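Task: encode each sequence below as structure tokens.

Item 1
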Amino acid sequence: MQSGRCDDLVEQGGAIAQELCSGCHAIAGPGPSPEPAAPAFGTLGQLVDIDDLAEALAEGILTGHGPVEMPEFTLDPDQIDALLAYLHSVQK
């Protein structure tokens, strides 16, 4: 993948993370997350294989973080690629 394309994906993924995820997750850095039970994106790779999230993002993630239910959303393939690129870029 060309560097410019990768940078674009990371930027797009960051925008998706900001819009959909930042209310509960620390989307950059080690945290803490606004919702304490929501893992910080920078350490998410220690909990799950980032690439394994693609199917869940396509089908709709159904999970909660303690008393807070995660909103249900599904992403199209381009959005998934972008969010995964972003998640890979922020791993510590």
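Item 2
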Amino acid sequence: MIQNLDTTFLLGDLNFRINMGNDLKTLIKNAEFLKSMNQMEKFEQEIKGLLTFDQLKIVQAQDPILSGYTEGPIKFLPTYKYDVGTDQYDSSKKQRNPAW
């Protein structure tokens, strides 16, 4: 018997990040500046550029289970962890990359 199911549940570590090196923080700061200057077209181009390094997008292109997954348009910058009570980017040994 063949069944067609309408719902798929994904369980596990779904904490996808951005696969990019140290330039990532600089690119995010540049995008923040563009947004503050109301240069929204350039800001959105920066986001599109960052999305090409998004781990979820990369996996979706390779994995048939995630290929049908859709999400709304991303029109905001990724966020990242700061040290508690500071504006210092994650200085723990994990050094987490930003994520959406």
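Check on item 2: The helical segments are 23-36, 40-51, 55-62, 64-67. Residues 23-36 form the longest helix (14 residues).
End of task.
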